[in-house]
Design goal:
By secondary structure, the protein is mainly α. 47% of the residues lie in helices and 8% in strands. It has 8 helices and 3 strands, in the order αβαααββαααα. The protein has a 3-stranded antiparallel β-sheet. It is globular, with a radius of gyration of 16 Å.
Length: 174
């Protein structure tokens, strides 16, 4: 192995990031990296608020979750599900990915539901609209001007989608 080369997770994702992707996809079934990031790590919207363009902000805040989804794909736990009408890549879990998400979410496998059917072929307009509604209900739209006006307080949050991540590393690091 070459120095610095990652063997198990080439995109360099952490167990926590892979766990975030598993949890979000385990609940929503189909999502873009942008939707996964806004649910799992909303603070990144603030961290990258000073980037010059919306495209650069989105690229920066979704890079880690895209990498985690790519590592899950390499492990056979996620697949690319096509693209939305806006051109964003849609991700979904494989059967093994759903089983891993069930462990992470502390649910029985039969509670996880089934695999989505050809969501990306049609542009996934309905699932993407449902996801946006879930995001709107769970996470308010951040005021990106806030960091310039006042200091942000760190407020501990509980992720409503995912509980303990104690088993994710064991499943992925095999």
């Amino acid at each position: 192995m070459m120095a610095g080369k990652r063997k198990a997770n080439e995109a360099g994702s952490s167990n926590g990031l892979r766990g975030d992707v598993l949890c979000v996809l385990g609940v929503l079934k189909v999502a873009t990296a942008d939707q996964i990031q806004r649910l799992a790590s909303p603070h990144l919207s603030y961290r990258h608020a000073l980037k010059e363009t919306a495209a650069l902000r989105k690229e920066a805040r979704t890079a880690s979750h895209r990498g985690a989804a790519n590592d899950l794909r390499r492990h056979g736990l996620a697949v690319d599900g096509g693209r939305t009408r806006g051109g964003e890549e849609v991700r979904l879990l494989t059967k093994d990915g759903l089983a891993a998400a069930a462990i992470d979410l502390d649910r029985e496998p039969e509670e996880m539901g089934g695999m989505p059917k050809s969501a990306g072929r049609s542009g996934a307009s309905h699932p993407m609209t449902v996801n946006e509604m879930v995001i709107a209900l769970i996470r308010p739209k951040p005021d990106l001007d806030l960091p310039g006006r006042e200091s942000l307080q760190r407020v501990p949050t509980v992720d409503p989608l995912c509980g303990s991540r104690k088993h994710v590393g064991a499943l992925i690091e095999r």
